[in-house]
Amino acid sequence: MTNNLLSNNIYKYSTNELTFYNWIAAKVPVVEKVRVLELGSGSGELWESLMGKFKNSQIILSDTSEERLLEARKKLHMHNFNFKVIDPHKINYNDAIFEVVIANHNLFFAKDLKMVLSEIKRVLRPGGIFICTTNSTDHLRELSNLLENFGINSYFEKGIINTFDFENGEKKLNEYFEVVFSEKFANVLEIPDIGSILSYLRSFDDHKINLLLQVRMMDVVKAISEQMVEKGSFTITALPSMFICLRR
Question: What is the pTM of this model?
Answer without folding.
Answer: 0.91
